Amino acid sequence: MSVSALRNGKMIIKVSDVKDCVGEGCRISEEFYYELDREVREMIEMAARRAKKNGRRTLKPYDL
After folding, report:
1. Which terminal Cβ of the chain has fewer Cβ within 10 Å, N or C?
2. pTM of the full structure
3. Alpha-carbon separation of residue 20 from 3, 6, 27, 29 (angstroms)
């Protein structure tokens, strides 16, 4: 999946913010954005499962 396809409302990370975080010293491949987005989604899903398991509907930092 290309970054342009992910930018059409499917990506939850912001490409420009990732670029800003990395800075001028590195370039970023399109695949990196896709994998980062996948990892972030997985972390959120795991946190949601943990919160539900503990009887909460609110995600807390320690759910990560």
Report:
1. C
2. 0.79
3. 16, 19, 11, 14
List the domain boundaries for the chain: 3-63
Neighbouring CB atoms inside 10 A of 37's CB total: 19
Contacts of 2 (CB under 8 A, 6+ apart): 30
The one-letter amino acid code at 14 reads K
Helix axis angle, 30-53 to 15-22, nearest 10°: 110
pLDDT (0 to 100) of residue 20: 94
CATH number at 3-63: 1.10.20
